[in-house]
Amino acid sequence: MSMADEECSDAAGSGTSLQRDLSIGLAVALVVVMACQWLLVTLVMRQVVRDYVVSRLEHDAENLLANLDLTLMPGLALNPERIDPIYTQPWSGHYYQIHVREETLRSRSLWDAELTVDMPGQDKSLMTESRPWARSLWSITRAYYKQGHAVLVVVAEEMSHVERGVWVLQLGHGAISLLAIAVLLMLQRRALRRAVAPLNQAGVALREIEQGATPSLPVQGLFVEILPFVIAINRLLALLHARLERSRQAAGNMAHAIKTPLTVLMRLIEGEELRDHVELRARIVRQIELIRALTSRELKKVRLSGVRSPVGRLEMIGELRVLVDVMRRAHGGRNLRIETRMPDSLSAIIDREDLLELVGNLLDNACKWAVGRVRLSVTDADGWTLRVEDDGPGCAPEQFERILRRGGRAEDAEGVAGQGIGLSVVQEIVLDYGGRIALGRSEALGGFCVEVVLPLKAVA
User: Fold this and answer.
1) Under a CB-based contact definition with an 8 Å cutoff, are residues 144 and 59 in contact?
2) Disulfide-capable partner of 454 in 29, 343, 388, 435 (CB 3.0 to 4.6 Å)?
3) How many domains does the chain have?
4) Where is the Histidine kinase domain positioned along the sequence (predicted)?
5) Residues 358 and 450 in one domain
6) Does 367 lie in the same domain as 336?
7) What 3-state class would DSSP assign to 125?
8) Are residues 253 and 317 in the same domain?
């Protein structure tokens, strides 16, 4: 995993989730809305059922009053042919009770029980479990005046089956509401994923831009809300690339401008005027070499900074073989043997100049310190792994940090040419590609060993 991927993982682990926040907000809103709807529907449904039952009980009370014969008083009688037979069945769930002065007429369905007489107009729901005929009664009490007598009629109906129906309807409505909330959350999750999919694709494209595989973000198939953001990023990339090119060009011009005065100084040193001043000439030469080294270092820094120029997939093995041949000729006077262990073909997205400078610095450093053998190994396991080893004296572990700094050299490097910036440049290139570098001792050759791992998309 590259450093950028690790940073993204850390940010994702410590940051907030848009999907979680939206889901929580939507869930809370839906629960509140569904609960209010459920309560409203329940209240309205109960009121409708109550009004219907009261209306029917009032109709039964008026029917009883119409069929009440008061001419037989003392004594009350109803025309049995006009009374619903359900009032004659014991504990049928439909009951009436009529009061005229001191006399009371009860329905046969009441058996020997009595209904509670309330104030006229007060409709009540009586919940009683002790009597089987009154598990859940809704009753009304109405006062009438007929044939010169005050008549009080109480009509009741057992409503357990209605209560059960209302409860089942409430449960069904609640279950449907919960199902609707779950479906809406799933649809919202799917819509959010579809909405952020272009951003995920843009993230992949940015990583490809970082590796140099593409110069800009794709704009095809984007939502109109995201398109201006992507276009702005592409403009910024183009601007940064243009500025980088101008910086590189300016640095190159500066390097060429400095070369001429340095060449003039070198000729003056070789002239007759300073021939007798050996120590002075040596001091001036060291200063000139230092200027050249500093200039080269700053040029490399400019080239490594900023946005890398778009590059394609590079066939690395051919380039490395050419570089090895160059090193053999450069150090041909020492009779060095440079061994290579590489696959026949290996390509990756990497800048050619970065590759040559990275491997060139490592090989040149190994050749300077080697006694007779240098080995270059390249594999594509765990990314692109490169190892350069030599059979020289090696380096103590306590000096590793020092030699990776700009200008840092080993303590016993006085007799070896160089300015001590090779490994620092290598480290800059490695970090620029999100890789890692490890220093140590070669187990095979006994000298110094440098291992570089780059997370490149290599194809062997």
Assistant:
1) no
2) 435
3) 2
4) 253-458
5) yes
6) yes
7) strand
8) no
Range of the domain at 259: 229-304
188 Cβ contact partners less than 8 Å away, ≥ 6 residues apart:
22, 23, 26
d(CA 283, CA 285): 5
* DSSP state, residue 309: P
The answer on 319 and 288 residing in a single domain is no
Taking each helix axis as running N to C, give the angle between helix 278-304 and helix 227-269, from 0 to 180 degrees, rounded to the nearest 10.
Answer: 170
**Going by C-beta distance under 8 Å and a sequence separation of 6 or more, which residues neighbour residue 81?**
none
Q: Could you tell me the CATH number of the domain that includes residue 417?
A: 3.30.565.10
The whole-model pTM stands at 0.44
Under 8 Å between Cβ of 363 and 388: yes
Q: Write 399-407 long-range contacts (CB < 8 A, 24+).
A: 400/439, 403/439, 404/437, 404/439, 406/297
3-state secondary structure of 305: coil
> Cis peptide leading into 74, omega within 30 of 0?
yes
Claim to verify: residue 387 and residue 269 sit in the same structural domain = no
DSSP-assigned letters across all residues of 234-286: HHHHHHHHHHHHHHHHHHHHHHHHHHHHHHHHHHHHTSSTTTT-HHHHHHHHH
Which of 304, 335, 359 is the endpoint of a domain? 304
The answer for residues whose C-beta is within 8 angstroms of residue 427's C-beta and 6 or more apart is 404, 437
Please identify, among 247, 273, 304, the residue that sits at the C-terminal boundary of a domain.
304
Task: Report the residue count for the chain.
Answer: 460
Asked whether 408 and 422 are in contact (CB, 8 A), the reply is no
Residues pairing with 126 in the sheet: 137
Same domain, 298 and 318: no
The C-alpha angle 283, 286, 289, rounded to 5 degrees, equals: 150
**Which two three-digit tokens encode residue 394?**
């090696």
**Whether residue 321 sits in one domain with residue 284:** no
pLDDT in tens, the chain (460 residues): 444 455 555 545 555 777 788 888 888 888 898 889 888 988 888 888 888 888 888 898 888 888 887 776 666 778 777 788 888 888 888 888 888 878 888 888 888 778 877 777 666 665 444 455 556 778 888 888 888 888 889 888 888 778 788 888 888 888 898 898 889 889 888 888 887 777 777 777 777 676 666 677 777 766 777 778 778 888 887 887 777 777 777 776 776 677 677 777 777 777 777 777 777 777 887 787 777 777 766 665 555 554 444 455 678 888 888 888 888 888 877 788 888 998 888 777 777 778 888 888 899 888 988 998 999 998 887 678 889 999 988 888 888 887 776 544 444 444 444 444 568 778 888 887 788 888 989 888 889 999 998 887 544 3
Q: For residue 248, tell me if it sits in a domain.
A: yes
